[in-house]
Amino acid sequence: MQRRKNILLIVVDQWRADFVPHLGAHFLRTPNLDRLCREGVTFRNHVTTAVPCGPARASLLTGLYLMNHRAVQNTVPLDARHMNLGKALRRIGYDPALIGYTTTTPDPRTTGARDPRFTSLGDLMEGFRSVGAFEPTMDGYFGWLAHQGYRLPPNREDIWLPEGEDVVPGATDRPCRIPAELSDSSYFTERALTYLNGKGDKPWFLHLGYYRPHPPFIAPAPYNRMYHPAEMPAPVRHPTWQEEARQHPLLDFYLRGISQGSFFHGAGGAASALSEAEIRLMRATYAGLITEVDDCLGRVFAHLDETGQWDDTMIVFTSDHGEQLGDHHLLGKIGYFDESFRIPLVIKDTGRMPRAGEVEGAFTESVDVMPTILEALGGEVPRACDGASLLPMLAGPKPADWRDLLHYEYDFRDVFYSRPEAALDLSMDESSLCVVQDERYKYVHFAALPPLFFDLARDPHQFENLAGSPAHAALVRDYAQRALSWRLRHAERTLTHFRATPQGLEERRPAQAAPR
After folding, report:
1. What predicted TM-score, i.e. pTM, was given to this entire model?
2. Is the model's pLDDT at 514 over the cut of 90?
3. Which of 37, 53, 385, 434 is catalytic?
4. What is the 3 state secondary structure string of 372-432?
5. Residue 58: closest CA among 137, 136, 127
6. Cβ(296)–Cβ(186) under 8 Å?
7. Closest Cα partner for 366 from 349, 348, 332, 341?
8. Catalytic (active site) residue 53
9. How far apart are CA 294 and CA 343, in angstroms?
10. Which domains does the chain have, with CATH numbers?
11. pLDDT tens digits, 440-463
């Protein structure tokens, strides 16, 4: 009898695609990710279909676009009726373990208003079994620190202040107070090794989440000074944030409203005020956090080697979303720029891979991960799933009828930490956008704000909005129609293949079409 596969799904947080050495970021040192890229397939044009964390992870783990799962922002509940990867794995005999978090707010119809999960950004998605919790409010990690004998400060988050300082001025190369062996990345790694040692030779599925390189952008020694700011790529932006803000009202809102405090613990001032030197310093710290995660993955990979499980384990490496990192004078994951949505995806299957080390340029999306894993394990992909399996591209070229556009969405309705609705004179249900783009053009449609259109060949960093250009009117119309067609094709379809007939219930089984 053939041994069942193990699955290791690695989900890092806020790691953007252009910080992958195999895709050109040669200033970075990530030997373990490099190994994965050599032995697997790296997807060059991969996006998350939603930001920020909660919506991104909902799409990743349900295989649904934002317009269908409707967990549209952090804090917004995920409908309990949706199938997700954890539930689907249980149906085929796997016990899906999860380390980290999913930032999932529960369906209020399944609990009560006093449920403490409604006081945080989110909790764990139903169907997974936590073997290394971070949520809610990082209690799992801080409890582990205390158990290790580390004396927590009265404000627990102060562990991310610079060593010997009570304030942080912003971007810094000072080490944080917590040592690397007690960092959150080490915590997740210890939990993973504990779980894997406990499994023995039984087949397993593990969602291994890492919090980094998510802010606060401060790293433990020696990662704090592993990279020099001069090694980092310069930010892509207009000379001033005011010039940038003229492009669109939503961009103007964020440039005026994002503070440094969410990215450098306790810092003040506007994110748009960061100088190029400060951004390079921040990027050097970000790179250090990436290498710290890579070193931690090296410990997990070494365990798989030592126990003879490497060849029996399918590994999927990805991120929930990207990070603006000073580009367009922005920090965080917001809006419509590529930096927030383009993310890494590397897949190593079990056994020998015909395309090992290759880079695939097909347009792939986070909704493709769930069906890929289910197909690899012989499971059934739900009818409602918006993505498609990537297994064919691990062995050969992309299918001839594969999607020819990337699609993603962003909902910017009010949440407790950001309130654009009144500032933009919008209602809750008008505060959304969707994007379709290919190699040449990018179209951004807003529910109640002006559209955007970019010629990526002439303007790859999307500075010049051509939506109002008479010379581009026909193209704008065409891409708007393509966006509408995409939404019509992917309208919720859980039950649309059933119908009543004089002979009783009929279930149609349409052939699985390639994503469009």
Report:
1. 0.97
2. no
3. 53
4. HHHHHCCCCCCCCCCCCCCHHHHHCCCCCCCCCCEEEEEECCCECCECHHHHHCCCHHHCE
5. 127
6. yes
7. 341
8. yes
9. 16
10. 6-507 (3.40.720.10)
11. 999 999 999 999 999 999 999 999
